[in-house]
Amino acid sequence: MNEKMKKLKPFDSANYEPIDLDRLVIYTTVELEKLGIELCLENIIVGAFKLFPKKFSLVGYSEFPDATRVEKALWRCKGKERQWIGGKTPHGYLITDRTRTIAAHTENELSNPGFKKQKITSRMRRKEGILKEVTSSPAYEKHMSGKGESISEADLCYLLQGTLDSSRETLRENLVSLKKFTEELEREDVLKLLNWLEQRFENFLSNKRK
Predict the structure, then answer these.
(1) Which spans in the chain are helix H?
(2) Which CATH architecture has domain 5-111?
């Protein structure tokens, strides 16, 4: 193993358990940079696993890292909606000012878990409230009753906390946020619906005229 990589020591799991995967991965990249370690996908996978083993281990095989989990987090972080990090998988990743800002905030959360706990609890309750609104929406009800094909654009906008007059950009951003919430709350049923709606209404959501 890279001698520099051995300098990474795991955090107490209680300190990082409330923090989402994306921020932990961003923190990892900055820590690797400090050690002079190349920011390739493989190194980030190992680094995240060493720092936060309970978050980045394979289910049922805690001694091995979950590469897919890290890769998906990086994909979300470098997407247009966030742009938390630069670069691409084949050529390595690039630290930006935004990366450093996210990493600094994450470091503060890791250093002050007690202070963050109340904020995280409040944020989780908000996410659960939003998810409840989704599951009580006409689109979700039609989906659950086997009438998914009758879901209209208006139903979609309502589910995305918007209207037909909302900008497509806002609707897409809300969709991204909802998908993230459902992943964090482990609601696979809702996530599948959101992915299906994203494909079904692809043309509507990509319309640039509004």
Answers:
(1) 13-16, 21-34, 41-51, 67-77, 97-111, 113-135, 138-144, 153-159, 168-184, 188-200, 202-206
(2) Orthogonal Bundle (1.10)
